[in-house]
Design goal:
This protein has 325 residues and is an alpha/beta fold. Helices cover 35% and strands 22% of the residues. The chain is built from eleven helices and ten strands. Strands 1, 2, 3, 4, 5, 6, 7, 8, 9 and 10 form a ten-stranded mixed sheet that branches.
Length: 325
């Protein structure tokens, strides 16, 4: 018996929680009978994936998250085909269980409480230099989404050619497209999480992010419970979206825009926009400005993006509404 064998089970489980990497822990299943019995009880996991496949997909499909985004774009933005690439043709409707979908990878773990899934890349195709970051919270559907975007950042400001009002009006279409793009990406990611939520009944926090730090979907205790209770209530409705994403409800969007911002350290941000999205049929009480600030801080922290968001919160806001899609 070596020293490691003398460690009590709770200590080994703490070590497994610190390891957290799902693929490493799966390999540990084969180390010994003791590891094989303990690894499934790990409660904190990080799953890094190179290619995401839903168990609802055809086994010959090359679809990934970006294809889901493209499919959804075509569904509601047929006039903007140039913004997305075409989706491969899938003529076989047969459902096939895919052995490398996130839900199946996690089936050997029985007591997961905290789970983070890292996707290989972001979903959006933007003009060179454009930055778009977002964070969305979900239950059975969208709860909130905070979106931050700007055209460029640099040490030298570009000439101001128009006032703030005309700049806002002239670029409104682009900013609405940014918002819709982020909402579609978020709803596609949420759809991929539903099977994981149903099978991992002990989850308390679930985060789906990408390695480019473009967007994050978050589900916490109340949202997870709500999603589990949803059942098949919206299954027929989602069939109309080729089962590629969760339907986005009717929303109200509070948009703030500043043509040019000066940051600490002499950096200049051009065309900065902050959008806070909430369902139209949601709690409207409380100080909306405070709520927006809390959501922005939670989404972007105190770094460069947080500084841009905090400055934008002081700007005039515009309220827009959008129907469910």
């Amino acid at each position: 018996m070596d020293g490691f064998d003398r460690l009590p089970d709770p200590v080994i489980l703490q070590i497994f929680d610190l390891v957290s990497d799902t693929k490493t822990l799966i390999r540990c299943l084969a180390v010994s009978k003791r590891f094989n019995s303990l690894v499934p009880h790990t409660d904190s996991l990080v799953l890094t994936v190179d290619r995401v496949i839903s168990s609802d997909s055809d086994s010959d499909s090359d679809d990934d998250v970006s294809n889901l985004l493209a499919s959804a774009f075509r569904y509601i933005l047929k006039s903007l085909h140039s913004l997305v690439s075409p989706k491969p043709n899938n003529s076989n409707p047969t459902r096939t269980r895919i052995p490398n979908c996130p839900a199946q990878i996690l089936r050997c773990f029985h007591r997961v409480k905290r789970l983070a899934i890292d996707l290989p890349s972001g979903d959006l195709r933007l003009e060179k230099g454009t930055v778009l970051k977002w964070r969305a919270e979900f239950g059975k559907t969208l709860r909130t989404c905070v979106i931050l975007g700007f055209r460029s950042v640099g040490e030298t400001p570009s000439p101001v050619t128009a006032g703030a009002e005309s700049d806002f009006a002239g670029g409104l279409k682009v900013r609405v497209v940014w918002t819709i793009s982020a909402l579609i990406a978020a709803s596609a990611r949420h759809y991929l999480l539903k099977e994981v939520v149903r099978e991992q009944s002990g989850l308390e926090c679930l985060v789906l992010r990408d390695r480019e730090a473009e967007g994050t979907v978050v589900m916490e205790t109340e949202g997870l419970r709500e999603c589990r209770e949803e059942g098949e209530e919206f299954a027929d409705e989602e069939e109309g979206l080729d089962r590629c994403r969760t339907r986005v409800p009717s929303v109200r969007m509070r948009m703030r825009h500043v043509p040019r911002l000066e940051l600490k350290g002499g950096l200049w941000v051009e065309g900065a926009t902050l959008v806070v999205v909430r369902p139209s049929l949601g709690g409207g009480g409380g100080d909306m400005a405070v709520e927006d600030g809390e959501l922005a801080l939670r989404a972007f922290g105190n770094g460069l993006y947080g500084e841009v968001a905090q400055k934008l919160l002081k700007a005039r806001s515009y309220l827009l509404e959008m129907n469910s899609f």
